[in-house]
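HUMAN: Mind sharing a backbone?

ASSISTANT:
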Amino acid sequence: MGLSGGVDSAVSAWLLKKQGHEVIGIFMKNWEDDDNDEYCSTKQDFIDAAAVADVIGIELEHVNFANDYKERVFAEFLREYKAGRTPNPDVLCNAEIKFKAFLEHAMRLGAEKIATGHYARVRSAQGAYQLLKGLDPAKDQSYFLHRLNQAQLSKTVFPIGEIHKTEIRKMALEIGLPNAKKKDSTGICFIGERPFREFLNKYIDSQPGPIKDDKGRVIGEHMGLSFYTLGQRQGLKIGGLKEPGAQRGGGDHEPWFVAKKDVLNRTLYVVRGHDHPWLYSQSLNAMNASWIDPSKITAYSNSSLGAKTRYRQADAKSHCSFTKPDQDIEVLFEQPQWAVTPGQSVVMYDGDVCLGGAIISEATPIKIRD
């Protein structure tokens, strides 16, 4: 059992023990660079995990995967940011650490299965394993798990996939778990919540450049394209600028949003208003496709599916086209989608079944009528 120190994995471990399984907790330490600063909570998390293991009555092992994380996850994370894209480290972290390095370690210990506190479900159907959404729509984490394969899912259990978060909190209190009221973790996977620009600046050289509006006028200077993402509203430091000659109550009072990045010319483009056409895309192209069950995915090409281009987004009706499972994909949305961001994942669904997804390489803006 991946025991993180959080309430979800704690209740998961308790449920498995209650069901009669022999449970061994594994605490994963995956980050060491600034382990002693105020933002890294590894020490406290381990203390919490140990306290949980003691209450439940299970063994706890401390395992260090920091080198694996740095080579397999963080290096790719930095490459994507340097290229001007916005990666999702949680997706890669799950595929490379939690369900690869951790899984391999558990198998070496003689485990039959691994378990985590994710809000998702695994089902065996038609001779294969399916990844399903968690039943709590507000907490479903299948989006972050879409790169898992058949071998990984065959060895995985999600004990709380059919339980709502509110019930998890109640159960933790009733059990008497010491972390029952601990807040959910946020921030970069295994690195935690911290001032992002300050953190990224340690690893990426900032290259300032112009900020331009949709008319091509320079209206400010950015700190480096890596520090901005499409749809971003905060931290642009251009909120006071107004359109020349604009009337009070008009477009000059709309907030600015990041709409485009021109990496070659180090230019950041911003537009006024949430509904500006530059912020909407009719379709996207994505690379490095990964499917839960590649043998069955070709049947879904050009079918009506649900698509998520970011976590917590409602499924958008769409069509996904490709010739072979290992090829890049194109996703055409029935309705334009807001701030589709290169580097993020597009994840495809057939109802509650997660089919897999790919990394967004580019998005096609909606056509503007003259």
